[in-house]
Amino acid sequence: MSPKLKCINCGAEYRDDEIVYVCRKCNSLLDVVMEIPKVSLNEFKKREFGIWRYREFLPIEEGCEIITLKEGGTPLYECDKLAKWVGVKKLYIKYEGMNPTGSFKDRGMSVGVTKAKSLGLKSVACASTGNTSASLAAYAARAGLKCYVILPENKVALGKLAQAMMHGAKVMSVKGNFDEALRLVMELSSKMGLYLLNSVNPWRLEGQKTLAFEVIEQLGHVPDIVAVPMGNCGNISAIWKGFKEFYKSGIINKLPRMFGIQAEGAAPVVNMLRKGLNRLIPVSNPETIATAIRIGNPVNWPKAVMALKESNGLFETVSDNEIIEAQRLIASLEGIGVEPASAASVAGVRKAVLNNVIDKENEVVCIGTGHLLKDPEEVIKVCGRPIEIPSDIRAILNIL
Ligand code: F0G
User: Fold this and answer.
1) How far is the CA of 2 from the centre of ligand 1 (A)?
2) Which residue of 235, 288, 378 sits with most ligand 1 atoms within 8 Å of its CB, as the best mutation to test the pocket?
């Protein structure tokens, strides 16, 4: 059976060669449906560590040209000192900053751009808070495709902007936030025939499933909790799908609880769950230091809510100060440099322990979604500048 797309609301189905992002009948999100392969972990272990090791779980036809920069295969660090600070028995960081462009987006873009190429498309596009555009620009360059990007003006970290520009994307910035940029790029894509690679594209999310597969392999078992910062909510949905597929294939026999964390000023999903609503009320002016997750109207909220409900999951918000504190401690206690959005996961777990929502005996994996160097300006703002010294050793000793 070749993979197909299925509407998560009305069940309408679409072929895998149709260019469709949301259901034509009811406008809801689509999911990739495929036969769950039967492959053993031992078989995977014989192959190179990276997303294409899980080839059978990726819905790309045999014979397609694979567009890869050797994404995935990132380290899972055991963090004992951080675990003490957070208050749990065991804490791990899955360090996605080690991907080719420094974030987890590369997993999705490898599959998404491979799909674009197999469909014969010449141009790709996205809106972005930064990392998606950096990643898409790099993979489009690798594939020889044109890349169009719309960013919220003055709200994209410098490192991410530099990447998108240098990899040759046509970069546009709009006076508005990510939600407006996404609305514009969706319209632009349909008018110009560009292939949209935001996380509303279900093929892209298939690549991000591999985060779950790698955690299982590296840990050797299923953790109690997997904590993920939520922005547009694609990643938490993809990781949950990955765990479910390993479960269905018989590779694992239990599932973790998913823990979704948002920044206080950009928390539409957590607000909705706290109030017990069944519809999202968008945040019209989202604001947080974690610009990667500064999103008020996340497209994938229905999938994220499903992941949290199905996994008996948890949700929490964290303040900018809590994010910065966690970012500092991840960097200074463990030597792992993450950007603010990534630190939100660790800050959220600590808060949940303090509030007695998470048991101290739990083993937790936090997804460190992006690299510290993505946002150097934020680092300088919170750490300050280097100490200025004269070129005189005695004066330096005096200062120290
Ligand atoms: N962490 C980082 C570093 C991100 O860049 C993003 C999303 C997230 C977490 C949240 O993931 O959207 O799947 O819930 N960044 C997108 C972008 C929106 O445009 O780069 P999500």
Assistant:
1) 30
2) 235
Residue type, 4: K
Ligand 1: centre distance to CA 293 (Å): 6
Residue type at 315 in one-letter notation: F
Local structure of residue 317 (DSSP, 8 states): E
Measured CA distances, 280 to 46, 58, 225, 302, 393 (Å): 44, 30, 25, 9, 61
Q: Sketch the domain layout of the chain as residue ranges.
A: 1-34, 76-102+204-382
In this structure, which topology does domain 76-102+204-382 adopt according to CATH? Rossmann fold (3.40.50)
Q: Which atom of ligand 1 is nearest to the CA of 230?
A: 14
Mutate to test the pocket of ligand 1, among 98, 106, 129, 230 (most ligand atoms within 8 A of CB): 129
Residue-level pLDDT, tens digit, the chain, 400 residues:
789 999 999 999 999 999 999 999 999 999 999 999 999 999 999 999 999 999 999 999 999 999 999 999 999 999 999 999 999 999 999 999 999 999 999 999 999 999 999 999 999 999 999 999 999 999 999 999 999 999 999 999 999 999 999 999 999 999 999 999 999 999 999 999 999 999 999 999 999 999 999 999 999 999 999 999 999 999 999 999 999 999 999 999 999 999 999 999 999 999 999 999 999 999 999 999 999 999 999 999 999 999 999 999 999 999 999 999 999 999 999 999 999 999 999 999 999 999 999 999 999 999 999 999 999 999 999 999 999 999 999 999 998 8
Tell me the CA–centroid distance for residue 182 and ligand 1, in Å: 13
Residues 6+ apart with CB under 8 A from 46: none
